[in-house]
Each structure stands twice: as structure tokens, then as C-alpha cells.
Design a protein that fits this description.
This protein is an alpha+beta fold. It contains four helices and seven strands, in the order ααβββββββαα.
Length: 194
């Protein structure tokens, strides 16, 4: 644990709120200095890059590789270039020009269960622990992901009510079954930690 994290854990809720606001402002200032804007979901990253009005596809050099991106006006230094934060699915990633003044790059994440700290590794990082994901419908998720999200939601509700989470409940059920199978044993001193 880093000293900053340790200090953060020792802060009062009011101090944490002040610290979080200051960090958010600093993070936003760093992101505003980038020559592009970006947003993400768990599935993808969308990058918007302003270019001179009238720019056409033939005026651009765009490279999208598994771990690399480059967008430049031909004959000029790259607007964005470098190693991507994480791998992408190249075949599902695209780019287009919007209104001849913006390049829109859509990057499909290979690992669709993680947040990116930045687009390219040389750019300032964002605090992924503070990301507030957009609401999505459970029906939109595949079965395995939906089950995991429902379990996390259940555990969060249980924790808020000071009740055992799903793993503890499962252990208690197994233990009760074991007790029924072995009535001759004394289990009076057994306790479950939450």
C-alpha cells in the first residue's frame, strides 16, 4: 500500500471529500491539455480528435494495431501516437471523419471487464476507482456477466444492511448441511466471520 493510499484511509470523510475534489480538478486539467477527448465503457473507448475543417480521409495517416495507435495529418507530427493502455480487437475497431473536422476513433477493448487509465501509456492517468459507469440494463449483459453483476449487487445490499454476503451464506448452508449429517459432533463454538 502506498503512503498516499494509507494516508487516504486515515482521513476523515470530510478530508476525503476535499481530497477527492482536488484530485478530480487536477485530473480534469490534465485531460483538458490532451489534443483529443476520450470516453469509455467497459466494452470500448471512443477518441475524438479535432482536425482542420475540410480534412478528408486521404489527408490522414491512421494506424490501429493491437497495442498501438497513430493518428496524424500526412506530413505532420502525430496528433496521438503510442502504446495503448491495453489491447484492442483490431478487427472491431474503426475510425471515421465527422463533418470534415473531427476524427472519431472507436477502439473495441480485448478485455471488456477493465477500465483504462489512459488511451496511450504516455498520457496522464485517470483514477479508475472513481469511475461512475453509465447505467445499463441487466438484460443487455451476457449470462455470465449478468450473474456476476447480480451477485455483486446482492452482496452490496447485504453489506449495507450488515448481513452476510453470498459467499458467507453459502458457507453457512454447507455448514448446516454438514451439521445435519454429523449430529454426534459439537459445533457450539463455531463462528463465521463476515
Amino acid at each position: 500500500m502506498s503512503s498516499t493510499e494509507k494516508k487516504y484511509e486515515e482521513m476523515t470523510p470530510e478530508e476525503r471529500e476535499v481530497y477527492d475534489k482536488a484530485q478530480k480538478i487536477l485530473e480534469q486539467e490534465e485531460q483538458d491539455k490532451l489534443p483529443y477527448k476520450w470516453r469509455q465503457t467497459l466494452q470500448d473507448v471512443d477518441v475524438t480528435i479535432p482536425v482542420p475543417k475540410g480534412t478528408r480521409g486521404r489527408d490522414l495517416q491512421v494506424e490501429l494495431k493491437k497495442k498501438h495507435i497513430k493518428v496524424a495529418l500526412k506530413g505532420q507530427p502525430a496528433i496521438i501516437e503510442g502504446e495503448l493502455c491495453k489491447d484492442i480487437k483490431v478487427d472491431d475497431s474503426t475510425w471515421t471523419i465527422d463533418n470534415q473536422q473531427e476524427v472519431l476513433v472507436h477502439l473495441e477493448k480485448s478485455n471488456q471487464m477493465t477500465w483504462w487509465e489512459n488511451v496511450v501509456t504516455t498520457a496522464p492517468k485517470i483514477d479508475t476507482k472513481k469511475i461512475q459507469p453509465e447505467n445499463s440494463k441487466l438484460n443487455d449483459l451476457d449470462g455470465e456477466t449478468r450473474a456476476m453483476v447480480e451477485k455483486m449487487m446482492f452482496d452490496q445490499r447485504q453489506k449495507a444492511m450488515n448481513k452476510p454476503d453470498s459467499d458467507t451464506l453459502r458457507k453457512q448452508e454447507v455448514f448446516e448441511s454438514f451439521k445435519k449429517q454429523h449430529p454426534e459432533m459439537d459445533f457450539s463454538n463455531v463462528k463465521f466471520d463476515q
